[in-house]
Amino acid sequence: MKLYALCDKETLLKQKVSIEKFIENAKEYGTEIIQYRNKSGNLREIEDDLKEIRKVYNGTLILNDHLRFSELVDGFHIGQEDLKRYGSIESVRKLIGRKILGLSTHNREEIEVSNTLDLDYIGLGAYRNTSTKSVTNILGDDVEPLAKISKHPVAVIGGVSLNDKFKNIEYIVVGSGLL
Predict the structure, then answer these.
(1) Between residues 134 and 78, which one has the greater pLDDT?
(2) How many Cβ atoms from other residues are within 10 Å of residue 149's Cβ?
(3) How far lies 163's CA from each of 5, 49, 160, 172, in Å?
(4) pLDDT given for residue 169 in this prediction
(5) What are phi and psi of 27, to 5 degrees?
(6) Are 85 and 79 in contact, with CB atoms under 8 Å apart?
(7) Would you give the distance in Å from CA 115 to the centre of its chain?
(8) Backbone phi, psi, residue 144, to 5°
(9) pTM of the predicted model as reported, rounded to 2 decimal places
(10) What value, to the nearest 5°, has the Cα angle with vertex 70 and ends 65 and 76?
(11) Which residues are within 8 A (CB) of 80 and not within 5 positions of it... i.e. 6 or more apart?
(12) 3-state SS record for the chain
């Protein structure tokens, strides 16, 4: 398993942690991917934060939504609700080309649909309840059997800690656990 760090702006503000400090922590744990998520900031703030991250991190940077910032990131992660805004994965693919593309999934049906899509990975969860996002579906022990259904690499999302161990899982996505 590899570490995929979720840098959630709202959580950083609540915890009074700078982006730079979060990135330092993530790098100490050998993070391979960092995803920046900012659901409430304006476009200028998002752009400035991405540039700040790039100053201190030269690894793979994924952005949650906001396809307009393609030149600043290596790829995008799209949630099921956000996907509706773009119309389809094919539409997103046309906009971002061969950049990394991940999609959140929460159940067997969404995984089976994702298997037909041009994706680089799926996020699967929520594994546990999390304080960073409202969660209605907790998968718990169902995560590993569901992950086996996916033809794409799987990143377990939602309430994951650094101590969690899984089989057949490519990435664990840890956010506030890195603070």
Answers:
(1) 78
(2) 15
(3) 14, 29, 8, 10
(4) 94
(5) -65, -35
(6) no
(7) 18
(8) -65, -45
(9) 0.95
(10) 40
(11) 103, 104, 105, 106, 110
(12) CEEEEEEEHHHHHHHCCCHHHHHHHHHHCCCCEEEEECCCCCHHHHHHHHHHHHHHCCCEEEEECCHHHHHHCCEEEECHHHHHHHCCHHHHHHHHCCCEEEEEECCHHHHHHHCCCCCCEEEEECCCCCCCCCCCCCCHHHHHHHHCCCCCCEEEECCCCCCCCCCCCCEEEECHHHC
All structural domains of the chain: 2-178 (3.20.20.70)
pLDDT on residue 137: 84
Tokens 């969690």 identify what position?
A: 164
Backbone phi, psi, residue 138, to 5°:
-100, 125
Q: Which amino acid is at 156?
A: V
- Cβ neighbors of 25 (< 8 A, separation 6 or more) are 178, 179
Rounded distance between C-alpha atoms, residue 27 and residue 110, angstroms: 32
Could you tell me whether strands 100-105 and 121-125 are parallel, antiparallel, or unpaired per DSSP bridges?
A: parallel
What is the token pair recorded at 156? 């377990």
Beta bridge partners of 155: 123, 171
Tell me the angle at which helices 43-56 and 19-28 cross, rounded to the nearest 10 degrees: 40
Rounded to an integer, the average pLDDT of 62-81 is 96
